[in-house]
Design a protein that fits this description.
The complex is a heterodimer of chains A (about 350) and B (about 750).
Chain A lengths: L4 H22 L6 H9 L4 H9 L4 H30 L27 H14 L4 E3 L4 E3 H4 L24 E3 L4 H10 L6 E10 L11 E10 L5 H16 L6 E4 L5 E10 L16 E10 L1 H7 L7 E7 H9 L6 H4 L2 H4 L4
Parallel strand pairs in A: 1-4
Antiparallel strand pairs in A: 2-3, 4-5, 5-9, 6-7, 7-8, 8-9
Helix pairs in contact in A: 1-3, 1-4, 2-4, 3-4, 7-9
Chain B lengths: L1 E3 H5 L8 H10 L3 E6 L8 E10 L2 E5 L3 E5 L11 E5 L4 E3 L10 E3 L11 E3 L2 H4 L9 E2 L9 H4 L11 E5 L9 H12 L21 E5 L4 E8 L9 H10 L6 H13 L2 E7 L5 E5 L10 E2 L7 E5 L9 E9 H4 L4 H13 L6 E6 L6 E6 H8 L5 H9 L4 E4 L4 E6 L9 H12 L19 H15 L3 E2 L5 E3 L9 E3 L8 E3 L4 H10 L8 E10 L8 E11 L5 H21 L6 E4 L11 E5 L2 E10 L10 E8 H4 L18 E10 L4 H9 L5 E10 L8 E10 L8 H13 L7 E2 L6 H9 L1 E2 L1
Parallel strand pairs in B: 5-9, 12-15, 23-27
Antiparallel strand pairs in B: 1-11, 2-11, 3-4, 3-6, 4-5, 6-9, 6-10, 7-8, 13-18, 13-19, 14-16, 14-18, 15-17, 20-22, 21-22, 24-26, 25-26, 27-28, 28-32, 29-30, 30-31, 31-32, 33-35, 33-36, 33-37, 34-35
Helix pairs in contact in B: 5-7, 7-9, 13-15
Chain lengths: ~350, ~750
């Protein structure tokens, strides 16, 4: 049954008085709370006047109107008690607070930051460190023996041409892959029952730079040696690393691939995220990008290192720029060499 | 090897997609290095709204207006929606010579104002022969790929071109037939089909007596009737063009098609006489041959007619050769010659003969199946192992429990040792079959102090607000700091290159390349290797470089502040790397502006330099100034890390006093600080807190505020004792021309300063 117009007017007046009193209470400093009580809950307050009007309403409406007035008075009394507690605890009155807009968060990057390549290098090194791999320093300036000859790369292999590799005076070569450094580390380490290490850093190839190849890129190579090492360990390391660094959404594909220094060898591809596997300059239309390669080191390499030829030594090399490109959806790895601060600032 | 996907799919009962082909062939050890998607399906061909011509250049909204090139023919009206191929897009170029394998590649603009894209024709998109611009539905949104704008998708040429690398040792995978075989082996649903070259019935006519001397080769010979050859179907010609094998001569074209499809070697010989012939392959004498594809030199062809020469129309002898183990995979040689016959003389089966040469010697490898399984981490039975190996031309026999002897065909030069055979087994099983494990028996990692300290130093500089960058180690030889650099061989490049001997030119180039930072300084840090050949070898040395780049118009104050910031960052870096004390001393060094350079000293060794450099000294155009520090991490980290010693605060009351000193400009702060530290025993701490220059100061002087703390371990010091200690410390500097500075108006406060603040 609809309420009579008088009751509706009274109820609306109660709500209005309640809102007005509550608004005043929010901005009321502590010392003035007594005055607020007098003005809004006292005998001359609006609520008191409304309470007196309830008696004039029709009998059937009096109960509802009376309840509304009583409820409003009770709520205001509770709010007053809360406010008194706040002021007693030292909370300043709202009017005394500094006016601020917490929704405005300036979009200003911090002044300094790490380069994404060094960030991912540390992340990868930490991932492998948790599995017992220790970081080993290795030079970037190598000799042909470590870079090619001792790894079984034939003398007429195209990658040995000066059009692909940087040769310097005195038969020095800028390492074109970290496996050269792996060999150097193996030669300095005694062959033990078990050994695990990573080498990492810049590698150099005399390529014409494009979205997929640059003449300086970074690799991290993890090496595990021991009688119990298996080819499946390389798969586990590769898939575990992809899961850890790229997340579960990437399904790495392991592909058979020959390299002179491993047998068997493999390459690990993931879906090219920048183009959504549609084909781009980075994946060169294939929709997949090779981000790792490795295998069990060949007997010739172990012989060159002075290690037992039948000791399984697993190696897995990771291309960090390509990993970054996939992780951040950037379809051109040259960005990581350009050092445009507008890009670097986003990677912090 | 370029493989049009539709052509490969003709050899399979169920077509594969690019992704499936990549998966299945990649698992087999072949790599698809690139996929060209030419024509309308290319994502680089988008819709664009044609605008008015301005200054002789036509623009199209893509959606931003860009200059485009129009094809010859009628110009579409302004406002028309056209297809625009962006740089890198591949367009069909049917029938046109001089294109890259039947495709036109849209070039990138070489100069400002050059067209960004090319308005496409139906011919270029593979939608028909027309050479005028194609017009798309007007409601198409500019920038939408054309493939999405064409609804429904047109039923026209839509081929993907796979760029496939097939290792030479996988001779059985050569040709579409071999590729289809590899796919079928890995996906049993896709049985191979034989649309072409099914070995048909032998034709009637003169016989061929074929003998093969080539060891390990199988040869198939066929005589095709003479007369004009059939013209090759257009589809096949277009496909040949896409593979880069097209030729106007029908015989050459047919031979190339057969060789491409079946992966065999082919050669033709024109026979001038009718009647039976004797063909010897691999002998000493050779006849002049016609079109050939990879015909091996060791298989010289000799043909002898058994009847005297006559006037019969010339006939064509076609010879196909393949290694016997490869040819056995579905009679490839037979199929190939039949394919040539079907193309050149359809409906007329040729006379054929097939002969194997002497068997090539095979070497044997003993395989321990259990050992193979443990090396791979894959449980493997002897039967499974034998099944895998026999499928690819290898022969296997048991040699005891868990042992197999595998006979290797001569063409598998990659299979020489047991590990090679293990690799072949994993190639055949595929890596999907392997479980993913991690190496057992964790090895506790030893400490790796040097790298960790180096990283800590870099991180400390970053924490000071410096942005880390990574610059190339190889730089152009005309870069500055090139004296005595390690030069690289040119290797085809026009300019000489060197290995950097300093990180600074790279950092300067980074600063100069930043746009939109006019008038603001830039803080950069890098850790990297440099090579200093004068050190006697080519070993690289890790360095840390910290740079504040000051733009044009920065005054001396900014330069001094920049040096202070850089120096503070280096000192923090040293501390973080476990070098608690890094002192500086004035030094002169090439490239640095005179009077601005200092040397960092750690444990008595020079560990780097800092100073101001002009941009021109680092090869940077413009008027940049750089406050830069180079730290040699080898020298810095030569000693083990020292944990900072912490000094407990004095238990007794201390007195701290700030004293203003008037210091001649030629007295460096480092010397001042050194003298203060060597002051009286009661002086517990002394440090420079402010440096100030003002016109009110005497010429050639600056004001330096030092904070001195005087204390005793045993009792509170008095003000008089503190003042005496300060006076003693300051008097030690008078020989350098240093004296207290008290401006006249501050005379009244001097006493307060002398009294100090009690802590």
């Amino acid at each position: 049954m609809p309420a009579s117009p008088e009751v509706a007017t009274t109820l609306e007046a109660v709500r209005s008085a309640y809102r007005s009193a509550l608004g005043a209470l929010r901005d009321c400093p502590g010392p003035e709370l007594t005055g607020w009580h007098r003005d809004h809950l006292g005998r001359r307050s609006a609520l008191a006047a409304l309470r007196s009007r309830v008696g004039a309403l029709p009998a059937e409406d009096r109960a509802a109107a009376g309840r509304a007035v009583r409820q409003a008075a009770d709520d205001l009394a509770t709010a007053l008690a809360d406010r008194r507690e706040q002021t007693a605890a030292g909370d300043p009155a709202p009017a005394d607070r500094v006016r601020l807009d917490p929704t405005h968060i300036p979009d200003t990057p911090p002044p300094g930051g790490r380069h994404p390549v060094s960030l991912i290098l540390d992340e990868a090194a930490a991932h492998f460190a948790a599995l017992g791999f220790v970081f080993r320093d290795a030079p970037q300036i190598e000799d042909e023996a470590h870079c090619f000859d001792l790894l079984g790369v034939p003398a007429d292999h195209p990658t040995r041409s000066p059009a692909h590799t940087f040769y310097a005076e005195g038969a020095a070569v800028l390492r074109s892959h970290t496996t050269a450094s792996v060999l150097r580390v193996l030669r300095t380490e005694p062959a033990g029952p078990a050994s695990r290490f990573v080498v990492a850093g810049p590698c150099h190839r005399n390529n014409v730079p494009n979205a997929r190849f640059v003449h300086q890129f970074h690799q991290l190579e993890a090496v595990a040696a021991g009688p119990s090492v298996r080819m499946s360990d390389i798969k586990g390391l590769a898939t575990g690393f992809v899961d850890a660094v790229l997340g579960d959404g990437f399904d790495p594909r392991l592909r058979f691939r020959r390299f002179p220094y491993v047998s068997p060898g493999l390459a690990v591809d993931v879906e090219c995220a920048p183009c959504g596997a549609e084909g781009c300059g980075l994946c060169q239309g294939s929709g997949r990008l090779e981000i790792m390669s490795g295998g069990l080191l060949a007997a010739g390499v172990l012989r060159a290192a002075g290690w037992p030829e039948d000791l399984p030594v697993a190696a897995l090399a990771i291309s960090l720029e390509r990993l970054l490109a996939v992780r951040h959806g950037l379809g051109d790895i040259r960005h990581f060499l350009r050092n445009d601060l507008r890009l670097l600032a986003q990677a912090r | 090897m370029r493989v049009p996907l539709s052509w490969l799919n003709e050899f399979l009962s169920k077509p594969v997609t690019v992704r499936e082909a990549d998966d299945l062939l990649g698992t087999a050890g072949m790599a698809i290095t690139r996929v060209d998607v030419p024509g309308w399906r290319s994502p680089r061909i988008v819709a664009g709204r044609l605008g008015e011509e301005r200054d002789g250049t036509t623009f199209a909204a893509l959606p931003a207006p860009e200059p485009v090139r129009l094809p010859a023919g009628a110009r579409p009206a302004p406002g028309s929606m056209v297809a625009v191929a962006l740089p890198g897009a591949r367009l069909y170029a049917p029938g046109s010579a001089g294109t890259a394998h039947g495709l036109d590649i849209v070039p990138a603009p070489a100069r400002d104002g050059d067209p960004v894209g090319l308005v496409c024709t139906p011919a270029g998109l593979g939608l028909g022969p027309s050479g005028t611009a194609i017009v798309l539905p007007p409601a198409t949104a500019p920038g939408t790929p054309v493939a999405a704008a064409l609804d429904p998708a047109p039923a026209s040429v839509a081929d993907d071109i796979l760029h496939l690398t097939v290792p030479t040792e996988l001779a059985d995978c050569d040709g579409l037939w071999g590729l289809a075989g590899e796919i079928a082996q890995r996906d049993r649903d896709r049985h191979r089909v034989t649309p072409h070259g099914e070995p048909g019935p032998h034709g009637d006519g003169d016989t061929i007596r074929l003998s093969v001397d080539g060891c390990g080769w199988t040869v198939c010979a066929a005589i095709l009737p003479g007369g004009a050859a059939e013209r090759m179907p257009d589809l096949l010609r277009d496909r040949l063009r896409l593979t880069g094998l097209d030729d106007d001569d029908p015989v050459t074209g047919a031979v190339r098609v057969a060789a491409y499809e079946f992966g065999v070697r082919l050669v033709t010989v024109e026979l001038s006489a009718a009647g039976p012939v004797d063909v010897t392959v691999g002998g000493d004498q050779a006849v002049r041959t016609g079109p050939a594809v990879r015909w091996p030199a060791e298989l010289a062809v000799h043909v002898a007619a058994r009847t005297p020469e006559n006037t019969a129309p010339p006939r064509l002898l076609v010879l196909a050769a393949a290694r016997t183990e490869v040819s056995a995979d579905g009679d490839r040689c037979d199929r190939a010659v039949h394919r040539v016959a079907a193309l050149l003389a359809p409906g007329r089966p040729p006379v054929r003969a097939t002969t194997e040469g002497p068997a090539a010697p095979r070497h044997e490898i003993l395989v321990d199946v259990a050992d193979t399984g443990s090396r791979l981490g894959l449980p493997l039975s002897t039967d499974e192992c034998a099944r895998l190996l026999t499928g690819r031309g290898l022969t296997v026999r048991a040699a005891g429990p868990n042992r197999l002897v595998v006979a290797i065909p001569a063409h598998r030069t990659d299979l020489r040792t047991r590990p090679d055979l293990i690799a072949e087994i994993v190639r055949l099983t595929g890596y999907r079959a392997l479980p993913g494990t991690v190496p057992g028996d964790p090895v506790p990692p030893p400490r790796d102090d040097r790298s960790a300290r180096s990283r800590a130093a870099r991180d400390a500089a970053v924490a000071h607000g410096f942005q880390e960058v990574v610059t190339p180690m190889v730089i152009d030889a005309d870069a500055p700091v090139r004296t005595s650099a390690l030069h690289l061989h040119r290797g085809g490049s026009r300019t000489g290159r060197i290995v950097r001997r300093s990180l600074l030119p790279g950092l300067a180039a980074v600063a100069a390349a930043q746009t939109g930072r006019r008038g603001r300084h830039l803080d950069l840090v890098e850790t990297g290797a440099v090579v200093l050949p004068e050190a006697g070898d080519h070993r690289e040395r890790p360095q840390l470089a910290v740079v504040r780049a000051l733009p044009e118009g920065s005054g001396p104050d900014a330069a001094e502040t920049a040096l202070h910031q850089v120096g503070a960052a280096v000192r923090s870096a040293a501390r973080a790397a476990g070098v608690p004390v890094l002192t500086v001393r004035a030094a002169e060094r090439a490239l640095y502006r005179p009077g601005t350079a200092v040397e960092f000293v750690a444990a008595g060794r020079c560990a780097g330099w800092m100073g101001l450099l002009a941009g021109s000294a680092l090869g940077v155009p413009g008027t940049w100034t750089f406050a830069a520090a180079e730290v040699d991490l080898v020298a810095l980290l030569a000693d083990p890390a020292v944990h900072r010693r912490l000094v407990a605060p004095p238990a007794q009351r201390t007195i701290e006093t700030d004293v203003n000193l008037l210091v001649p400009d030629e007295v460096p702060a480092a010397e001042l600080a050194g003298l203060l530290r060597a002051g009286p025993a009661a002086l517990r701490r002394a440090g420079i807190v402010d440096v100030y220059r003002d016109a009110r100061l005497p010429d050639g002087h600056r004001r330096v505020t030092v904070r001195l703390e005087v204390a005793s371990d045993w009792r509170p010091v008095t003000r008089q004792e503190a003042a005496a200690a300060c006076d003693e410390a300051i008097s030690a500097m008078t020989e350098l021309g240093v004296r207290r500075w008290t401006p006249p108006q501050e005379q009244s406060t001097q006493d307060n300063n002398r009294n100090g603040v009690i802590r």
